[in-house]
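Notebook entry, cofactor series.
This is the third protein in the set we're modelling with a bound small molecule. For this one the ligand is zinc ion. I'm keeping the input format identical across the series so the outputs can be compared line by line later. Sequence and SMILES below, as received.
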Amino acid sequence: MTFAARNDRSVGGQMRSPAIETMAPDAIASLQGERLRAQLAYIAAHSPFYERKWRAAGFDPARLRSPADLSAAPFTEKDELRASQMAAPPLGTHASATLADVIRVHSTSGTTGRPSFIGITRADADQWTESLARVFWCEGVRREDVFVHAVGLSFFVGGLPVKDAIEAIGATFVPIGTGASERLVQATEALSGSVLFCTPSYAFYLAEKLAEAGSDPRSLGFRLLTLGAEPGGGIPDLRARLEHLYGARVTEAYGNGDVLPAFAATCEEADGNHFLVPDFVVLELIDVDTGEVLPWEDGARGELVATHLARECCPLVRFRTRDHIVVRTSPCPCGRTGPRWICEGRTDDMLIVAGVNVWPSAISDVVGSFAPRTTGALRILVNADGPAVPPPLRIRAEHGEDAGDLTALRRELEERIRAKLVVKAKVELVPPRTLERFEMKARYVERTDAT
Ligand SMILES: [Zn+2]
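Returned structure with ligand:
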């Protein structure tokens, strides 16, 4: 099975593959239907995992005509992929390709359970490169840029695949990695770094480190921060704070290691992540509890489900990403036609307080919006195992150096959380720099027995 890479690069315009990124919905459905039939036939012939799964569910892939018919197929859960790899190491019975065909292996870190491997063939790698190149092009990365890469390079799908994509755009890739803030500053100054790629947590961490050393993050001279690997870059208040701290535009990419490292991104309008690869993946929006397929309507909320359209190794059908999104469908001035979304968080991170869903990233956003009266650092103290937490939600947050009246600040925080997130919170304020910082992904929730 081969899927030719597209060559319709828009060098001077705002899109990397305008023919795909501006395609009309009926043309997309037709392209996806054709590719989906080919992909399912390939999977049926190469994947013992899906052969068994579909037989058990009574699903016949040969009868599928359009992407809408996918709802007849069973979902694929991350746990099933882990079990498949444990039963048939190293890649699992869903691999559909042998190690001889695989040119590189990545792994997803996973917030739960053991890491799982993802193999890619030459064709898969080319697809990853094209997908990520569209993502970074959409975010504004161009050939003239010096791209400072401040996430891990080993195993992580945001590592080497991002290098390939930045090189495909023709920009200059600078591999810094993690835990090397001094080297990052030196290299950025020496090479005139223009783009910083990191997690939202790291962007705040670095700004704080620089401020402690008496220097201004703006002096680094970045014109663009491209954020990924954790939710937050799409939250307007958080983005505004980082834009102010760095004096740079802030964009976000969205991805999922099992689907594609990144396949959606914010354009210059910054109103949600544009879906950029309808030729590689077909998406569904489902009700988290019932699994029912929901229409892509403006403001719709649900879980993102992905099906590969042109994957050789580890192709997935109706994979539950566990990411909760809010959909945007209003036309975007940039001209891209695909749906957009903001990722609120992952099922694993969600807390339920008196029946209300609460995302730790949303709490962080409220606390951070009080800066400089707060430092932005916080913990959510949870005295329970599951997502359900009895009210009030206990939050420990650092006040700033010149926070003024702490009792007033505490009350304002509690009121703002109640107003914005409809949840009763009890805030405890602690002095600046008492909470441990996260250099990569934030872990706001602390399971504790303390009262
Ligand atoms: Zn746009």
